[in-house]
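STRUCTURE REQUEST FORM
Protein name: Integrase
Source organism: Actinomadura physcomitrii
Requested output: structure tokens
Priority: standard
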Amino acid sequence: MRVQIASEPGRPDRDNEDFAAAAPGLFVVVDGAGAPAGVASGCEHSVAWYAHNLGGMLLAAARDIGVGLDEALAIAIERVNALHAGTCDLGHPGSPSATVAMARVNGERLEHLVLSDAVVVLDLTDREPMIITDDRLARVITRLDESAELSAVGSREHTERLRSRVERLGSYRNQPGGFWVASTKPEAAEEAFAGSTPLGELDAVALLSDGASRLADRFDLMSWLELLAVLRKAGPTELIARTREVEASDPDGARWPRGKASDDATAVWWSAGD
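Status: completed
Returned output:
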């Protein structure tokens, strides 16, 4: 099995809040949901700590193919809870959280799971690729942000708006009619998007954090077929490098409004024929 993985922080002076790993027939990407400075979390641990521990627990739980991917995610959330229940307020609405993308070979099928805005891209034989992501967070943000006008990334106004958004999102997180992420509620795993595909219909699979999918789903500079072509020919490192070039061309977010000028970016690529 040949798997390619690349992960890079959005800024060299900050921790990478993404996690990626693979085991035989199993692939995991966890994207920690960072928050602006000043937003309380009730937790003494960082978002990177949460994402990396959740990823490790998830990899361990999902290696048992008798356990469903949603069940594995619930188990991993419970196990991370146990690591810091004695030191942190797990009932706080700002507790560290993360998005998740997983894929696993089980017999003659590839299973997948996505929770929140991570992305699984199935490169299908003789068909258009299948894109699996969860847009419920984006829909809530659209409802919250009445003004379409965004200030320059990094400006005081931009930071204040992001802080206000994150605080308001707390009442929608892991709630019916809101959005679902991995945090402290194991039942959030039941809300993940999951399915499976026959291996015979699959050429490859990509797992992407939203920082690595931007060229296709935020900047609209690539089709998904073109993104897959980059991964196939040059691998995840090249995809992230091209993303950084585009981000650097628009540092203030004037052309592509966004929360961060550069986000942590992680990509896992597996060719089914390898």
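Reviewer notes: The longest helix spans residues 47-62. The mean pLDDT is 93.
Form closed.
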